[in-house]
Amino acid sequence: MNCSSRYWTLCCISLCSEGKQYKCSLVPEAQEFFQNFLAELLFNSVTPLNQKRIQMALHSKFHPSSLTVSDSERAQAGLCLRCYVSHAILKACKKLDGSFGIKKSFTYQDLLRFVLDDDGKKLVILDRECKTKLILNEDGQTKESDYSLFTVEILRTYHPSESSMSLDNWAELKTRQNQDLKKFLSEFGLQHLSDWAILNRARHRQLECLSVRDRYLVKVFHAVYRRDRCQEGQRRKCPDPNEAQLQEMLALLQEREVVINTSDQLMGELKQVAKQLRQYDVWSNIEPLEKYDPETENYTIRTDLPQSSLELSDIEEQEFLEFLHEQLRLTLTEAMEQEIQNRLRELANSRRYSPLVERFIPGLQLYYTEGRSLRDIASRFGMTSHDQAQRLLNPGGLLRGVRTLMVQQLLDKTLNKVQSMQVTENPPPPNYLRTLAEQIEAFADEQVFQKATAEIRTGRKRSMNSLYAQQLLLYCQQYVDLDKE
């Protein structure tokens, strides 16, 4: 399907589509309008057109501020955009499905019913305040719509400009934020939950990533807090554990010879376990290792993975993908720990910076938690200059060091894996090694380091929420907790 046809083919629910549960239908009215619109746009344009400019021009016609555009033309422009957006919604659902891996009890088709609700049969515009959806009848009259189409809601909240998010990315974002979809997916870990909700719904598979002591903490939390929630039948937000619950948990922990002295200490340890479980959710929902091909309507291994030299069966391919997914998490953790320890040793051995070594971890926490500038951190720590904070923390240098170590470790483990699967010679030929190294490096950059680098380059009001940032903060907190002991 070429890109232009997305403006006149609509993805909609269909129960007669042989398992897919959706179909992409031609919308003749949208096709005729778009082709005339594009011809006019090309005639009046002095520079080459791209999708962004086409969407901005369509949106300007659809938007109610366009006083010279008739309701009919506005509705038809909106119909073209609704068609376009429906493809983005479908893609977002398939991407969400892929992000949960194979161990799940739903498919992307289960998600479509929440967001793919537009059949293209009604012409819709917005009122002057851009709040209410109006249906345009055949006689040109409008009436308020009793039902809110999700495609129209995406367009209503989209404000295009040359520098803004693309319509595809906006549609994906709004799909992920759809309340009905989020409610459905909350059972599978894709929800912003409080620490207590995270602990309350922790499953056996998640507990496997915890230490024995932390598993005990979760088990007694379930024995007390989950029990009370079930008995009371509460559906509201999970409140903080009360003092009676904490004391009962402390007694149960004492029976298991887990020593925690106060309820405040127990609260702190429970929150730390919740952070680990939240991190598990983050890693469980990273970018899928496969991507959807609209031409074949199938998932294929992404081109940045080492696939060209592998001849794998479907089972071996899935095994290899799961291996890469797991090793990405492990190697990032190992590389980060190793590089931070290297950095601490260098500072401790530096005559100039050894007095500041204890500020390294707190400085990283300020930088990544609060988005503080190095100048602010220097002032807060009483340093002589911004340059001193830069040389102490050097977040860019730390990131580059972690990247170098991680890529090498991931390459070594991947090479051992493909050799154990007997899909390459031992030793492998030089060309294979070079290609594998390039692909592993590109894979690590896309999954971790591109976003982490972009965060550092952002000026004020930066938001540090990349996988790298979250893993770094988790390590820093664990380091602080161990230091207290």
Short synopsis of the structure:
60% of the residues lie in helices and 6% in strands.
Write up this protein.
The strands form 3 sheets. The chain has a 3-stranded antiparallel sheet with strand order 3-4-5. The protein has 3 domains: 4-188, no CATH class; 195-284, no CATH class; 309-484, no CATH class. It contains 19 helices and 7 strands. With 485 residues, the protein is mainly alpha-helical. The relative contact order is 0.07.
Shape descriptor reads: globular
Count of the domains: 3
Assign a percent range to the helix content. Answer: 55-70%
Beta-strand residue fraction: 5-15%
SS-based structural class?
mainly alpha
In terms of quaternary structure, what is this?
single chain
Return Rg in Å. Answer: 27 Å
Number of helices: 19
Distance between the termini: 61 Å
Largest sheet: 3 strands, antiparallel
List unreliable stretches of 5+ residues.
282-315
What tags apply to this protein structure?
485 residues; 3 domains; three-stranded antiparallel β-sheet; two-stranded antiparallel sheet
Topology (elements, then pairings):
Blueprint: E1 9-13, E2 22-26, H1 28-44, H2 51-62, H3 71-99, H4 108-115, E3 123-126, E4 133-136, E5 142-144, H5 150-156, H6 167-177, H7 179-185, H8 195-200, H9 204-207, H10 212-232, H11 243-255, H12 263-284, E6 290-293, E7 298-301, H13 314-348, H14 360-369, H15 374-380, H16 386-393, H17 395-420, H18 430-457, H19 467-484
Antiparallel strand pairs: 1-2, 3-4, 4-5, 6-7
Helix pairs in contact: 1-3, 2-3, 3-4, 3-5, 3-6, 10-11, 12-19, 13-17, 13-19, 14-19, 15-16, 17-18
